[in-house]
Specification:
Number of helices: 7
Oligomer: single chain
Number of strands: 38
Largest sheet: 7 strands, antiparallel
Distance between the termini: 108 Å
Shape: elongated
Strand content: 35-45%
CATH superfamily of the largest domain: Immunoglobulins
Structural class: mainly beta
CATH class of the largest domain: Mainly Beta
Helix content: 10-25%
Radius of gyration: 39 Å
Number of domains: 4
């Protein structure tokens, strides 16, 4: 009775397994025990779902098996299996169990009945396909309902995961987007910071425009054979990657190491990883794209994936690589002893500017006055670095060497806006180009001394008698940031309108503690913003501009 209940509750495909696994004359107790053992093992193996992508996790050196059988009435039906390794190369095989059509089944309380009158050999197992590697591989075959199929997967390098897709329905379209007959990516243009790519359209794009898009992956390490492998590599670098399609739909899963850029209907995600940047760019259905903002003289790897937005499945084009052009050697300008030059730097192109000087004395001094923006200076002597820092205000570098030493000065902007700096090299320390500077170039205003038509400001002086000129400019609230950002700290009063001049005065104090002066500027309008500047003139006549100060007069007094 127990055996009858046991058989009655078996699914059809498990009954088939019973037939495939046994070919005997009559059920015996030993047969029952053997069959129960086989059935137990089968229950604890994994049945591969039809028409669904399955993620399989593999432990190193431990094989994993999946089975599938066709439903009744599906004899000689085609089927496809697609396996996508998401990391290291794997080994996988397809085995088929074929058996004779003899099987004994219990018939309730009756004696066993012979299903087939002719008894043949036991079931046979044969391997019909095997593969080793990390490429996406698809097997297409014809299945019979009298056969049981087994897929066996093995990773010998490390723990990993793969995706497996089985389908026996060839009439309802493809889970994976289709690749063109020629799936190569062509490089049609290379610049110093750009590479232009093109590829042939996927047939899926032409059929389902609204559900398909192209995504490009750019990195400096190697090509990836699947989007799954690329995502695994980025995760292994220590960060969380958004789901494949989230990168084209939403930034809600971005991590701190990721930067998202959305412009002209293109979305880019830049992942900051230990091996450099990994960029993901989704550009809709355009099949030509120019990758911007690359580094000169650098090899990049490019992979294009066609992605199904509905199923999240993707197919990879054959990746390519290209090396950007070398940055042309910067033009070197000769510096002359005592002469001042002003250098303007292009922040967007990040180009450096080179100056060269051959020493005529053992001791020399470089002077840099930052005029606008942010500038980094790098000085070498006979090829060896002697100074490197970001400039601020006025900076002196006093260096010692030998006669005819060659100094190379390289300047570059560290921000996107243009920057400029004045440079001088001199061996005459006793003839300074710039005036002696106070401890601080800040202008202070006194809030309690503000009135409706006057403000009081103060600034530090030096022990050397110098000339100071004060200028004022009326500005609006929305002009403050622009005025302070774009101020040219190297420009003198000659750039100002005559009506902006307030006064000029001389002063100094041997005691630096008392080298402070104040000035009350009158004749101002109530409730109005003013920009105040102070210029310091030294013996050479070259001015140094204090940091601008914005003060607002009182509305009511």
């Amino acid at each position: 009775l127990k055996m009858s209940w046991f058989w009655f509750h078996l699914p059809l495909h498990l009954l088939m397994v019973a037939c495939l696994c046994h070919s005997i004359k009559a059920p015996t107790s030993s047969f029952q025990q053997s069959f129960k053992t086989d059935l137990f093992n089968f229950y604890h193996s994994l049945i591969l779902a039809d028409g669904k992508e399955t993620t399989v996790h593999l432990l190193k050196d431990i094989p994993k098996r999946y089975y599938f059988v066709l439903e009744e009435g599906r004899a000689l039906a085609p089927f496809t299996i697609t396996v996508t390794p998401c990391d290291v190369p794997i080994e996988w095989s397809i085995l088929v169990h074929k058996a004779s059509a003899i099987c004994f089944l219990p018939a309730g309380d009756h004696d066993t009945q012979e299903v087939s009158k002719s008894q043949k050999a036991p079931s046979m197992v044969s391997t019909i396909f095997n593969y080793k590697g990390n490429s996406v591989e698809t097997y297409v075959g014809m299945s019979s309902h009298s056969a049981l199929y087994m897929l066996e997967f093995l990773s010998t390098e490390r723990d990993t995961h793969i995706t497996v897709y089985l389908t026996t329905d060839t009439t309802s379209g493809h889970l994976y987007p289709e690749l063109p007959m020629d799936p190569r990516i062509d490089v049609i243009g290379i610049g110093h910071t750009t590479v232009t790519l093109t590829w042939k359209h996927s047939p899926s794009v032409l059929q389902h425009t609204e559900n398909i898009q192209y995504c490009l992956l750019v990195n400096e390490k190697h090509n990836y054979k699947s989007l799954c492998a690329a995502e695994t590599a980025i995760r292994s670098s220590g960060m969380k990657l958004p789901p494949t399609l989230a990168l084209s739909l939403s930034p809600y899963l971005l991590e701190p190491q990721q930067v998202m850029i959305l412009s002209n209907s293109e979305l880019s995600i830049i992942n900051k990883v230990s091996s450099g940047e990994v960029r993901q760019i989704c550009m809709g259905i355009k099949n030509t794209y120019t990758v911007p903002n690359l580094s000169p003289s650098t090899q990049y790897y490019f992979d294009v994936f066609v992605v199904n937005l509905l199923t999240n499945a993707s197919a990879a084009y054959t990746g390519t690589f290209a090396r950007t052009l070398e940055e042309p050697e910067p033009k070197v300008t000769e510096l002359k002893d005592g002469k001042v030059i002003q250098v303007v730097l292009d922040g967007k192109k990040q180009k450096s500017y080179s100056l060269q000087y051959q020493a005529r004395h053992k001791k020399i001094q470089f002077t840099f006055q930052l005029c606008r923006g942010q500038v980094r200076v790098h000085i070498t002597k006979n090829g060896r670095t002697v100074a490197a820092e970001n400039l601020s205000g006025l900076r002196y570098f006093s260096l010692k060497g030998k006669l005819l030493d060659t100094y190379l000065v390289q300047l570059r902007s560290t921000e996107e806006s243009d920057s400029s700096v004045k440079v001088q090299v001199s061996s005459h320390f006793h003839k300074p180009l710039f005036p002696l500077l106070p401890e601080s170039l800040k202008i202070k205003s006194f809030s309690k001394l503000r009135t409706c038509n006057s403000v009081t400001i103060a600034w530090l002086g030096t022990q050397e008698e110098s000339k100071y000129c004060v200028y004022k400019k009326r500005i609006e609230e929305d002009q403050v940031w622009m005025e302070l950002r774009d101020a040219d700290r190297c420009s003198g009063p000659e750039s100002r309108h005559k009506s902006e001049k307030v006064l000029c005065k001389y002063f100094y104090d041997v005691n630096l503690q008392r080298a402070v002066t104040t000035e009350t500027i009158k004749g101002l309008d109530a409730g109005t913003l003013y920009l105040f500047d102070v210029y310091l003139f030294g013996p050479s006549g070259i001015p140094v501009r204090y940091h601008s100060k914005v003060v607002k007069t009182r509305k009511k007094c």
